[in-house]
Write a structure and sequence with these properties.
alpha+beta; 3 helical TM bundles of succinate and fumarate reductases; Ubiquitin-like (UB roll); five-stranded mixed sheet; elongated
Length: 551
C-alpha cells in the first residue's frame, strides 16, 4: 500500500512539474506566452484544492521516502537506486524553498507574482540562477529515474525507448532555454515597465528577499533534522539488532551469510556484496530476484499480496520465492534462478527446468494424414485448414480447463490437474479428448467442400507422476512437464491407429477418474521402454464414457 501511495504522490508532483516546466518552455515563444500560461496554471495550482493536493503530495512523498530509507537494512544498493534516493531527498528542500518564495510570499506578504519579474529575480544573481538550474535538473532526473523504473517492465515502454530517451533529454534542456530566453527578453523591457512591475510587487524588495532567505533556512533545517532523525533511528535499530537473533542464508556460491532478523534475503545478499539479479530494485515489481528455497521453506512467512501476485503471473512453483519480499526468521538455503546481471528482458522469464514432481493427466492429440493433406493442396490452403483445426482443439482445452503445453506441427500436448486435483484432472483430460472428437465432427461438416475425406485424430490420455513446471530456453519458456509418463501418453496416441479407435485411455487414468471400464474395450499393449503389458482402454463408443462423466 505504501508503495502505491508513494507512486501516486509522485505522479501528482510530476503533473505539477510538467506544467511548470511547460510554462518555462513557452519563454522560447515569447514573454507574453509564458505570462499567459502562468496565469492559467496559477488558477489550477494556486487554488485551495490545488494547494492541498500539491503540498499534501509533496509532504507524503518525502515522508514515505524517509520511511523507505529507514526500513532498508543496508545502504548497499545499485547506483541508479542510490541516485534516485539522493535526488529525491534533495528535491524536497529545493522545491520547498521555491514554494516559500512563490506561495509563501503570496499568502504571507501579499506578493503579486508576474512572470517577467520572477525571471528577473532568478537571473539577478549567480546564486539564484544556480539554485533554479539545480532545481530543474534534480527534479527532472529524479522523475525520469522513477518513471523509467516504473515503466521499463512494460513491453510498450520498451518498444518506444527512443521516444522516452528524447523526452528525458529535451525537457530540462528546453526548460532552461526557455528561462534563459525569457531573461534575455526581460532585459530588453523599457525601464518604466520594469519599475511599474516592481511597484506592483506588494512589498519592499529587501523585505521579500529577507523573507525568502529566512523561509529557505527553516525548510533546509527541518529537512536536515528529519533526515538526521531517520539515520539516527537506523543506527539505534542496528545496535539493537546486533543483540537480537540472526539467521543464516546458505548461498551456493557464497556459503553461509549471516542476516539480521527483519532483513529480506535480497538485503542479506547486498549486505555481503553478493551479486544478485533485481531489475526493479527490490520493490516486488518484477521476478528477477526469485530464488528456489531448499531447507527452511516451511518456516518462511507466507508470501504477501505483492509477492503472491508476481509469482502467480509466472506460474512459479511453491518452492520459489522473491528474495526482495521474503524475510526469513530462521536458517534458509537458496538457489538463485536468474543470472546476477539479468536485464529487463529477463523479467518474467523462467528458462531452464524449474518444476516439482506431481501427479497429472496428460493428453496428446495428433492429426492423422497431415502429410497427405499437404501433398494434395497449396501451402496456404493447408494453413487455412490447420488454423481452423487448432482453433477447435484450443477451444476444447479451454472449456475443459486443459493447459496447452507443446505444439509439434500437426498435434499438441495438454496438461490437466496442474492444481493438484488428481481425480478432477483425470476426468477433465478424458472430457477434453471427447470434446475434441465432438468439435472435429463439426469442423468436418463445415469443411466438407474443402476436404476429399474427413479429418481424423488420435488422442492418448495417461495419468501419472511427472516433473511439472516452467522449462525451455530463457527467451521463450513454457509451462510443461517431462518424465516417463509423458512419453507413455505420447505412445498411447500413436496406438490409436493399431487399435482402430480415436481415443486410447490408460487404465491408470480411468482408475484415478473413478470411472467404470466395463463398457469399454480393454487391451494390454506393449509400451516401448517399459517391460510387461500395459493395460489401456480403446474408446469405440465415446458417448458411453461421456454419460459416465456427466454423473
Amino acid at each position: 500500500m505504501q508503495s502505491r501511495i508513494r507512486l501516486g504522490s509522485g505522479l501528482i508532483l510530476l503533473v505539477f512539474v510538467s506544467t511548470h516546466f511547460f510554462n518555462h518552455m513557452l519563454g522560447l515563444v515569447s514573454l507574453q506566452a509564458a505570462e499567459a500560461a502562468r496565469a492559467i496554471f496559477h488558477v489550477l495550482w494556486g487554488s485551495v484544492p490545488g494547494g492541498v493536493l500539491l503540498y499534501g503530495a509533496l509532504a507524503t512523498h518525502f515522508v514515505l521516502a524517509l520511511a523507505v530509507l529507514y526500513r532498508r537494512r543496508t545502504l548497499r544498493m545499485p547506483p541508479w537506486e542510490l541516485a534516485q534516493l539522493t535526488l529525491g531527498i534533495l528535491f524536497v528542500p529545493l522545491i520547498a524553498t521555491h514554494a516559500v518564495a512563490m506561495r509563501g510570499g503570496e499568502e504571507l506578504l501579499g506578493i503579486s507574482h508576474e512572470y517577467a519579474r520572477t525571471v528577473i529575480f532568478i537571473w539577478s544573481s549567480a546564486s539564484e540562477t544556480a539554485k533554479q538550474a539545480a532545481l530543474v535538473l534534480v527534479t527532472w532526473l529524479h522523475a525520469a529515474i522513477g518513471l523509467h523504473f516504473w515503466l521499463r517492465l512494460r513491453p510498450g515502454y520498451r518498444r518506444l525507448t527512443h521516444v522516452w530517451t528524447a523526452l528525458y533529454t529535451l525537457v530540462p534542456v528546453l526548460t532552461l532555454l526557455g528561462l534563459y530566453q525569457s531573461a534575455r527578453e526581460s532585459e530588453r523591457l523599457p525601464g518604466s515597465v520594469v519599475r511599474a512591475s516592481m511597484e506592483r510587487l506588494g512589498a519592499s524588495l529587501p523585505d521579500y528577499a529577507a523573507f525568502v532567505e529566512a523561509g529557505s533556512l527553516i525548510v533546509w533545517a527541518v529537512t536536515g533534522a528529519l533526515l538526521a532523525v531517520t539515520m539516527a533511528a537506523r543506527l539505534v535499530r542496528a545496535l539493537i539488532k546486533e543483540r537480537a537473533a540472526t539467521f543464516l542464508v546458505e548461498h551456493p556460491g557464497a556459503g553461509g551469510l549471516r542476516g539480521q532478523m527483519g532483513q529480506t534475503i535480497l538485503e542479506v545478499l547486498r549486505t555481503h556484496a553478493v551479486p544478485h539479479a533485481s531489475v526493479c530494485g527490490g520493490r516486488g515489481r518484477c521476478t528477477t530476484c526469485r530464488v528456489r528455497i531448499g531447507n527452511g521453506l516451511d518456516a518462511l512467512p507466507v508470501p504477501n499480496d505483492l509477492e503472491r501476485s508476481a509469482l502467480e503471473r509466472i506460474c512459479a512453483e511453491p518452492t520459489v520465492r522473491l528474495a526482495c519480499q521474503t524475510r526469513p526468521e530462521s536458517g534458509v538455503t537458496i538457489a538463485p534462478l536468474v543470472q546476477p546481471r539479468a536485464a529487463v528482458a529477463a523479467t518474467g522469464q523462467r528458462g531452464g527446468v524449474a518444476g516439482t514432481e506431481r501427479v497429472i493427466s496428460v493428453l496428446f492429440v495428433d492429426l492423422r494424414g497431415s502429410t497427405k493433406l499437404g501433398q494434395a493442396r497449396l501451402p496456404y490452403d493447408v494453413l487455412f485448414i490447420l488454423n481452423q483445426f487448432f482453433s477447435e482443439m484450443a477451444e476444447s482445452l479451454q472449456v475443459t480447463q486443459g493447459h496447452y503445453a507443446q505444439f509439434n506441427g500437426d498435434g499438441l500436448m495438454a496438461i490437466y490437474g496442474r492444481d493438484g486435483e488428481v481425480r478432477e484432472g483425470a476426468r477433465a483430460a478424458i472430457r477434453g479428448g471427447l470434446e475434441m472428437l465432438r468439435r472435429l465432427d463439426g469442423l468436418n461438416r463445415h469443411l466438407s467442400d474443402e476436404l476429399s475425406e474427413p479429418l481424423k485424430i488420435g488422442v492418448g490420455v495417461h495419468t501419472g507422476e511427472a516433473i511439472v513446471g516452467t522449462m525451455g530456453p530463457p527467451d521463450s519458456p513454457i509451462f510443461s512437464a517431462i518424465g516417463d509418463n509423458i512419453n507413455v501418453a505420447a505412445r498411447l496416441e500413436g496406438l490409436t491407429k493399431a487399435l482402430g479407435c480415436s481415443v486410447v485411455v490408460s487404465a491408470d487414468t480411468l482408475e484415478r477418474a473413478e470411472l467404470n471400464g466395463a463398457s469399454l474395450r480393454a487391451e494390454s499393449v506393449a509400451i516401448r521402454g517399459r517391460t510387461g503389458d500395459f493395460p489401456v482402454y480403446a474408446i469405440d463408443d465415446p458417448d458411453s464414457l461421456a454419460r459416465q462423466l456427466e454423473h
